[in-house]
Each structure stands twice: as structure tokens, then as C-alpha cells.
Write a structure and sequence with these properties.
Layout: H1 21-38, H2 43-50, E1 58-60, E2 63-65, H3 68-85, H4 109-112, E3 113-118, E4 126-130, E5 133-136, E6 142-144
Antiparallel strand pairs: 1-2, 3-4, 4-5, 5-6
Helix pairs in contact: 2-3
Pfam family, one: TSCPD
InterPro entries: RdRp_reductase_class-2, TSCPD_dom
Cofactor: adenosylcob(III)alamin
Length: 145
């Protein structure tokens, strides 16, 4: 939640079932962040301390989320950016958070072929080198080296 000056003053976060260890830890983090914001601690300071804490990382729409505390920092950073505070020192759009998800570029089939060798099984398909093996594009013949 934000105050009348568009500054965050309260954080709510939930995770999984109530009563679980992870849920309790996240509630504690939320309460401490809220207490810090109400005590006048700059949001960027909070983001800086929470950002990068690593546990079981996951991907969220192309952004690496390293842990529950990291998620709180990411969301706080996003809200600061959206609320008109501009880009924060730790915002996801900054240089600190590089583009972590890049769609792989696919190569044309002829770049993957191995000297245009024909398949020894069907004599129709072309063999391509894939994951350390030679595979036929027509019949599925596969030979690993």
C-alpha cells in the first residue's frame, strides 16, 4: 500500500498454505519491511538488502526470482517504478538486472546438417548433428558417437 505521496508504507505477501514454515517466513519479512518503511527507511535500502538472496530460484515471465525475499524486493521495485518514482537503483529495468531470458535463435536446417550426408537407413532423409548424435530428418534414424 502507498501513502498520499505515493510512497510505499505497507507490504502484504502470502505464500502457499497458512501455517507452513515458508508462509511464516514470508509474513515475517513482510512485517519487517512494513515496519522499516513506516520508520522512514528508504525503499531502495530495503530492496538492496533483500535483492539477490538465493534459495530455490524460479522464473517469472522472464525474470529470475531467487527466493521469497528476492520476490518481495522485485515487487517493491516494480511498484516504485510504476508509481512514478522513476527507475530505482535496484529496479528490474536497470543495468543491475540484465536481460536474463533471451529467446534462443534457431539456425536454419542447412546449418545443422553434416555435409549433407544421406541417411544409411532410408536413403531419403538428410542426417543432422543433434545433441552429439546423427539423426535422420525423415525416418528418425539415430546414431550416437
Amino acid at each position: 500500500n502507498f501513502d498520499e505521496n505515493e510512497k510505499p508504507f505497507e507490504v502484504f505477501a502470502t505464500l502457499g498454505k497458512a501455517g507452513s514454515t515458508e508462509s511464516a517466513h514470508l509474513e515475517a519479512i513482510s512485517r519487517l519491511v512494513t515496519m522499516s518503511l513506516r520508520a522512514g527507511v528508504e525503499p531502495n535500502e530495503i530492496i538492496g538488502h533483500l535483492r539477490g538472496i538465493t534459495d530455490d530460484p524460479i522464473w517469472d515471465t522472464g525474470t529470475l526470482v531467487r527466493s521469497a525475499p528476492d520476490a518481495v524486493a522485485l515487487v517493491l521495485s516494480r511498484h516504485l517504478t510504476l508509481s512514478g518514482e522513476g527507475k530505482t537503483k535496484y529496479s528490474i529495468e536497470s543495468e543491475i538486472q540484465p536481460q536474463l531470458f533471451v529467446k534462443p535463435q534457431s539456425k536454419p536446417l542447412d546449418e545443422l546438417t553434416s555435409n549433407n550426408q544421406s541417411c544409411p537407413e532410408c536413403n531419403i532423409g538428410t542426417l543432422i548433428h543433434q545433441e552429439g548424435c546423427m539423426r535422420c530428418t525423415s525416418c528418425g534414424y539415430n546414431k550416437c558417437e
